[in-house]
Design goal:
With about 270 residues, the chain is α/β, with parallel strands linked by helices. It has 2 domains: about 150 residues, Rossmann fold (3-Layer(aba) Sandwich); about 100 residues, Hypothetical Protein, Haloacid Dehalogenase-like Hydrolase, Chain: A, domain 2, CATH 3.30.1240.10. The strands form 3 sheets. Strands 8-7-6-9-11-10 form a 6-stranded mixed sheet, covered by helices on one side. A 5-stranded parallel sheet has the order 2-1-12-13-14. α10 links the parallel β13 and β14. The radius of gyration is 18 Å and the shape is globular. The relative contact order is 0.18.
């Protein structure tokens, strides 16, 4: 696609202003880019139900990358062949029967928009938009899991995060990978299939949309964006991005709260 770009946006800390709304300038710039013939794709750690609002706001008609690349789907094309990375139930049962179970306060598993939660918790329900799930089941995973999930979230007792991640890396690195959330949420650990990430997902989506890496611009702020930064020809780190992401980026822009995505697009692509 001559002169046309595939623009890939992370949500939280990148295109969103406050975890709830798109930054108005970023939204306007993305709409302008789309009107100019460029293609927009969302790549987020969020489940599909927590990103569909922004997909619809931007009037997208492209595949969506969710769960950090573990779930690739197309909200408006029922014929699109979904790609779902799944963790065997026996691996999950093994983890939750292991020594680290004593350090886990709660956990959720997800398959598409079907969610499994060990214990009911109002805060957890708000975090993961449980009211918008297709289904929610509560109880021990060994009793309620009826699908191989795309990943799971661990709420760990403060101070035991490294012990839990070390256990997963030593005993299950051939199946899963894990990462901590940042800021005040370091006790939250994401666990996904070891070979799924935003980079591998973007490669599949780019092939589907007929874009080469050199024609892709990605925006992000977290360590879960590293692989897609390494894949894309142009990778733009937000000013608020982690240092390890900035280290693999090809450029930088302003804070997400300052409409950094818009600033870059207007300066380098839209010439407005």
């Amino acid at each position: 696609m001559e002169n046309k770009k595939l623009i890939v946006i992370d949500l939280d800390g990148t295109s969103l202003h406050d975890h709830v709304e798109l930054h108005p300038e970023t939204k306007a710039a993305l709409m302008a880019a789309k009107a100019a013939g460029h293609t927009i794709v969302i790549a987020t750690g969020r489940p599909a139900r927590a990103s569909i609002k922004f997909y619809q706001e931007l009037e997208l008609d492209t595949p969506s990358i969710n769960f950090n690349g573990s779930y690739i789907h197309h909200p408006t094309d029922k014929n699109f062949e979904e790609i779902i990375a799944q963790i065997p139930i026996e691996i999950i049962n093994d983890i939750f029967n292991s020594e680290i179970s004593a350090y886990i306060e709660n956990a959720t598993c997800e398959y598409k928009d079907n969610t499994y939660v060990i214990k009911e918790d109002e805060l957890l329900g708000n975090w993961f938009h449980l009211k918008n799930c297709d289904s929610v089941k509560f109880g021990p995973f060994k009793d309620i899991l009826d699908q191989q999930p795309s990943g799971f979230i661990l709420i760990v007792k403060p101070g035991f995060e490294q012990k839990v991640m070390n256990y997963l890396r030593v005993n299950h690195s051939d199946t899963v990978t894990c990462r901590q959330w940042g800021d005040e949420y370091t006790h939250v650990i994401e666990v996904f299939k070891h070979d799924s990430n935003k980079g591998t997902a973007l490669a599949k989506v780019a092939k589907h949309l007929n874009f080469e890496p050199e024609d892709i611009i990605v925006f992000g702020d977290g360590d879960n964006d590293i692989e897609m930064f390494q894949f894309a020809g142009t990778s733009i780190a937000m000013e608020n991005a982690l240092d390890q992401l900035k280290a693999v980026s090809t450029g930088a822009t302003k804070l997400n709260t300052e409409g950094g995505v818009a600033h870059y697009l207007y300066e380098n692509l839209l010439n407005i």
